[in-house]
Amino acid sequence: MRILVLAKHVPDTTEIRFSPTGELMVRQAPTKVNDYDRHALEEASRLRESGAEVVIASVGPPEAAKTMKEALAYGADRAVLAGGAWVADADPEAMAEVLAAIARREGPFDLVLAGDVSEDGYNALVPGLLAAKLGTPYVRGATALGVGGASVKVTRLVGDVEEEVEVALPAVISVTRLLNSPRVISTMAVMKVPMSKVETVDLAELGLDPAAFAPGALSTRVSAVRPVQSKRGNEMLRGEPAEIAAELAAKLRGMGVL
Amino acid sequence: MPGLPGAFHWLIYVALVVCLVVAAWLFNRRVRAAGVSPAELAHGLRELASKGPGEALAVVGAEVFGQRRVRRRPYAGLMHLLIFGSYGMLTLGTVLIAVQHDFTGRFFGVTFLNGNFYLVEKALLDTAALGLLAGVGMAAWRRLAIRPVTLGARPTVVVAYAALAVMAATGLLLEAMRELAYPVSWSHWTYAGHLVALAITPLVGRLNLGAYQATWVVHVLAAFIFMGGALATALDHVVLVPLNIALQSSRAPGELRLPFNLAELLESGGDLEGVSSGFANPSELDWKRRFMLASCVNCGRCEEVCPANAAGRPLSPRKLVQALKGDLLSPSDGAGDLFARGVLDTDAVWSCLSCGACARECPAFIDQPGTIVEMRRHLVEEGNVDEAKALVLAQLERNQNPLGLPSYQRFARLAEAGVPTIEENPGAEYLYWVGCMSSYDQRAWGVASAVISLLRLAGVNFAVLGESERCLGECQRKLGDEAGFQMRSMEIAETLRSHGVTKIVTHCPHCLVTLGRDYRSLDMEFQVVHHSELVQSLLAQGRLPTPKSWEGGKLTYHDPCNLGRLSGVFDAPRGLAASVAGESFVELERSREKSFCCGAGGSNYFYKVPAQESVSGLRLAEAQAAGASTVATACPFCLSMLEDAARTAPGGQGPRVADLAELLAEALGLEAAAAP
Ligand SMILES: Cc1cc2nc3c(=O)[nH]c(=O)nc-3n(C[C@H](O)[C@H](O)[C@H](O)COP(=O)(O)OP(=O)(O)OC[C@H]3O[C@@H](n4cnc5c(N)ncnc54)[C@H](O)[C@@H]3O)c2cc1C
Ligand code: SF4
Ligand code: SF4
To answer: Which residue has the higher pLDDT, B256 or B147?
Structure first.
C-alpha cells in the first residue's frame, strides 16, 4: 500500500499577534507542522509499520524543510516540498493544484491522508479540491479508520451522530484530532532525520506553468485582515466558599447557562 | 599457638590463600552477573586514582569508617556499627598478632604487642567479640522478630551471621581455655574471656587438649567461611558498596548524567543514528551504572523518605532499583523495553519528583532520581508519553514556556513595573532571571514584584532580558527531552553572552540549578545566586534595613528541594526568616537536607499521576502541626503548590503561604513594584 500524507508548514497561532499599529505579525511566529496533519502522519506511520510506503507532500516556503524533518520523524519514507515566492499569496485552489501534481508525479497512491483543516488558513478546502483534481472519492473528518484490501472504512462524527462510510481506494480522507494521539517527537528524533529525505521541487519540475500561480492569476485573494475584539468579562466573587457557590449558581442561572 | 601442632600454624596461611581465591572467584562471578568485568572495574578505579582520589577517599572514609549515612537509623545503624566495627577490630587484631608472630618477631626479633598496649589491645578485642555477638543478636532479632518487608532470612544470610556469631563465641571460649591452662595475673584485661573461664571452670576443670583443638578448628573455619563465602555472597555489600561510593562520589546531588554534549556532537558532524540519551533495558547501561544497581542492599531507606511513596503514588525507589537490579542479574523473558516486559510501570517513573531525598539517604550511593530521568528519556525518544507531557514539550517549543502562554507576553508585567531590559541598561551588575512562573502566573508575579522592590531599595543595578528571556527547560530536561534541553541551553547561553552577562540573580531554584550547575557541566559558566542569598547579604551589608516587628504568628520555612538539598542553600533563607519573624521562627520536623517536597519537582507541576494523597497536602499538614500561621518558601513552584494545599486544607483555609522576599518587602512597608 502506498500512502501520501499532506503536511502543512504553519505559523503557531498562539504566537500570532497584531502589532500596535494593527498589522498582523505572522512572520516572527514560530512554525510547526499543522496540528491536524500530525494525526494523519501518526496514522500513516502506524500503517507503515505493517508495510505501507509513506510519502509526505507539502507546499510551503524554504523554511518548511525544517518542518518536513519534524513530519518525517513520525515515521515516513520521504517528503516532497514544493515552493517558491508565489506561496505567500497562494489560495486553496493553487495549493491543491500543486499537491495534485506532486501526487501524480510520485503516485499512484492508494490513500491520501490530510488534516481536516489548517490552523492558519482555516479553509478546510484543500483535501476536497485535491480529490476532485485526482478524480477520487473524498471523505471528510475521520475519527477512525479501518484500512483493508481495496477499501477503507471511515468513521466520522456529524453533530451527535456517528457515521460509518466505506469508500473504495484510492481515496482522499481528511482526519480530525479524535483519530489518534500522535506520539511526541523528541528533539533528538527530529535531529536524526537526514535532510536528504526532503526533496525540494519547483513548479517547472512538477510540469506546472509558473504564470498560472502569479498573484493576479489566482482565483481568490485575501483583501484585508482585521483584529476582532471579542467581549469577555470576568468578575471575582469573594466570601466564604458556600456563599460564593450560591452566588455563582444564581449568576449562571441568570445568564441562562444553568 | 599453645597446644597446637606446628603444622596447623602454616596450614592457616594455606587456608587463607585458598579462602581469598574463593572469595575473589565468587566476587568475580557476582560482578560478572551484573555485566561488569573486573577489568572495567579496575580501569574505573585507576581512572579515579589518576584524577586525584582525594575526594573519593574522603567520601569513602566518611561513609565507610564514619558510617555517616548508616548511622542515621538508630537500630539498624547501631547494629551495623557493632558488626562492622567489631569485625574490623577483630580482623585488625588478628593481623597484628600474625605480623608480630610470623614476621617481625620471627625474622627480626621485634615485638610490638607488649606492655600496656598489649593489655589494651586484649581488652579491645574482647569488647569487639562481645560487640559482634550483640550486633548479630540485633540482626537476628530484626530479621526474625521486627521483620521489615525488605529483609528476610535467606539461607546464605543465616550462614553468614551464624559464622560471625560462632567466630566470636569460640574466640572467647579459646581465650577462656587458655586462661584455665595458663593462668595469668592480668586476666581482668581479657574480661570477657575471663568471665567465660569462670563459667566453664566447673565443667572442664582442667584443659582438655582435644576440646581446645576442636574449638580452635571451629573458630578458624567460621572465620574462613565468613571471609571466603559471605563477603562475596550474602554480605557482598561489604565489597560492592565502598567501591560504588568511590565511583559515585563525584556526583553532585541531583546532577544528571550527560549522555552527550550536543554542541560537540553537532560540531563533530557525527552520525546521530544510534545516539540515545536514556535506556530501554538495564542491560544497555554502562558498567558503572550496572555496578551501581548491583550495589543496592535493599535497605529501604530511600523508600522511607520518598515523598512520592508517602503520598501513595505508585513509586518506591527501593522497589524500582531492586526491579532494575533483578532484571540486570536475571533478565525476564519477553521482547521490548523494560516497560513492555513488565519490569516497571511507566507510572512509577513519572511519579518521581526529582527531589533527591532518596539519593541523599542511600548508604550505597545509588542515583535513583537520575536513573529515573534516564528511563523518561527513553520514553520520550520513543514518543511514548501521554498528551499532558507531550503538550508541555510542544508548548516549550512554541511559546518558550511550559504554560502555553504567548512568548510576547513574558515581558508585559515587568515592562509595566518599569524594569529595564539589558539593552536599556547594559551596565547592570546583575541580570535578574525572572523565570516562567513569575512572568506568567499572577500569584507568582508577587515574588518578582517583591524582589524588584527590594533590589531597588538596596540600590542594586539590575536588568532583565525581557522578551528574549525564555524557559531554561528544567522541566523539559526532567521530562526526558535531553537534546531539546541542550539545544535550548546553547541558544540561551549565546543570548546571555551576547549581552556580556556574568552575574545572575534568580528567585527560582529550578532556574538556579539549571543556569548554575547544569550549564557548568555543559561548559557554560555563569555566576548565579538565589534571591535569598543576595537579599540576605544586602541585609548583612546594611543596604536593606532590618524590619521592626512581626505580628504574623509562628513563621516556618519549607526548604525547596532545588535550593536546599540540591544546591546546599540552607542558611540564607533562614537568616531572612529570622530577620522577618525573629523569635517567632519555628523549624519544621523535616527541614534542611531532610526536607520533604512540595510535589511540583521533576516536572510534576504539569501533569498528574495516580496518588492517594497530595504531596503538598502532607507538607502543609506538617506546617500546621508545627503551629505555623505563615509558611515561607523560596520557590515559585513551592509557593503555588503549598498555597493550593492551604486553600483546600481540611478544616478550612490553612496557613498563609508566601515567599521570603514578599514577607520582607511587606515588613519593610514596600509597595508592590507594580500590580497589573
Ligand atoms: C493573511 C494570510 C497570509 C498567509 N500567508 C501564507 C504564507 O506565507 N504561506 C502559506 O503557506 N500560507 C499562507 N496563508 C495560507 C494560505 O492562504 C493557505 O495555505 C491556503 O489558502 C490553503 O488553505 P488552508 O490552509 O486553509 O487549507 P485547508 O483546506 O484548511 O487545509 C486542510 C488540509 O489540507 C492540507 N494542506 C493545506 N495546505 C497545504 C499545503 N500548503 N501543503 C500541504 N498540505 C496542505 C493539510 O493536510 C491541511 O490540514 C496565508 C493566509 C492568510 C489569511
Ligand atoms: S537504593 Fe539505596 S537506599 Fe534504596 S534500598 Fe537500595 S541501598 Fe537502600
Ligand atoms: S527523587 Fe524524591 S520522589 Fe523521586 S524516588 Fe527519590 S525520594 Fe522519591
So the answer is: B256
- Residue B421's contacts (CB-CB under 8 Å, 6 or more residues apart) are B411, B463, B464, B465, B466
Q: Give the one of B273, B406, B481 whose C-beta lies nearest to A14's C-beta.
A: B406
All residues of chain A having their beta carbon less than 8 Å from the beta carbon of residue B382 are: 183
Whether A196 and A78 have beta carbons less than 8 Å apart is answered as no
* Residue B481: closest C-alpha in chain A: A186
DSSP A216-243: GGSS-------------------S-HHH
- Judge whether A228 lies within some domain: no
Of B383, B387, B406, the CB nearest to A185: B383
Domain B555-667 in CATH 1.10.10? The answer is: no
Say if A93 falls within a structural domain. yes
The model's pLDDT over A154-197, given as tens digits with 9 standing for 90+, comes to 999 988 999 999 999 999 999 999 999 999 999 999 999 999 99
> Residue A30 and residue B277: Cβ atoms within 8 Å?
no
Work out which ligand 2 atom sits closest to the CA atom of B361: 3
- pLDDT tens digit sequence for B207-244: 678 888 899 899 999 999 998 888 777 788 988 999 99
Q: Residue with C-alpha cell 492558519?
A: A120
What is the model's pLDDT at position B675?
A: 46
Q: Name the more confident of A90 and B555.
A: B555
Q: What angle do CA B615, B620, B624 make, to 5 degrees?
A: 150
Q: Is A56 in the pocket of ligand 1 (CB under 6 A)?
A: no
Q: How far is it, in rounded angstroms, from Cα A108 to Cα A245?
A: 61
Angle of the B74-99 helix axis to the B115-141 helix axis, nearest 10:
140
Q: In chain B, pLDDT over 70 holds for what percent of residues?
A: 97
Q: What is the 3-state secondary structure (H, E, C) of B94-115?
A: HHHHHHHHHHHHHHHCCCCCCH
pLDDT tens by residue, B278-314: 999 999 999 999 999 999 999 999 999 999 999 999 9
- Give counts: helices (H), strands (E), chain B: 31, 8
Grid cell listed for B270: 557525527
Q: Tell me whether residue A254 is in a domain.
A: no
Opening angle at CA B293, ends B288 and B298, nearest 5: 150
pTM for the whole structure: 0.89
Burial class from Cβ neighbours inside 10 Å (0-12, 13-18, 19+) for residue B499 reads: middle
Ligand 3 centroid distance, CA of B220 (Å): 45
Nearest residue to B129 (alpha-carbon basis) of B217, B196, B63? B196
Note whether B468 and B454 are within 8 A (CB). no
Name the domain count of chain A.
1
Among A117-131, B97-111, B123-137, B454-468, the range scoring the smallest mean pLDDT is B97-111
**Among the partner residues B383, B404, B408, nearest to A184 by beta-carbon distance:** B383
Q: Please name the residue of chain B whose CA is at the shortest distance from the CA of residue A28.
A: B408
Cis before A170? omega within 30: yes
The ipTM, to two decimals, is 0.82
CB distance B248 to B365 below 8 Å: yes
Residue range A104-129: mean pLDDT, rounded: 95
Distance between Cα B295 and ligand 2 center (Å): 8
Q: How far apart are CA A165 and CA A4, in angstroms?
A: 20
CATH of domain B275-383: 1.10.1060.10
Q: Which has the minimum average pLDDT: B182-191, B552-561, B633-642?
A: B182-191
| Tens digit of each residue's pLDDT (9 = 90 or more) over B456-473 | 999 999 999 999 999 999
Do B324 and B29 meet the contact criterion of CB atoms below 8 Å apart? no
Q: What is the pLDDT of residue B115?
A: 85
Domain residue ranges in chain B = 8-245, 275-383, 388-540, 555-667
Is residue A251 in some structural domain? no
Residue B338 makes CB contacts below 8 A (sequence gap 6+) with B280, B281, B282, B324, B327, B344, B375
**Distance in Å, alpha carbon of B636 to nearest chain A alpha carbon:** 23
What is the extent of the structural domain holding A27?
Answer: 2-217
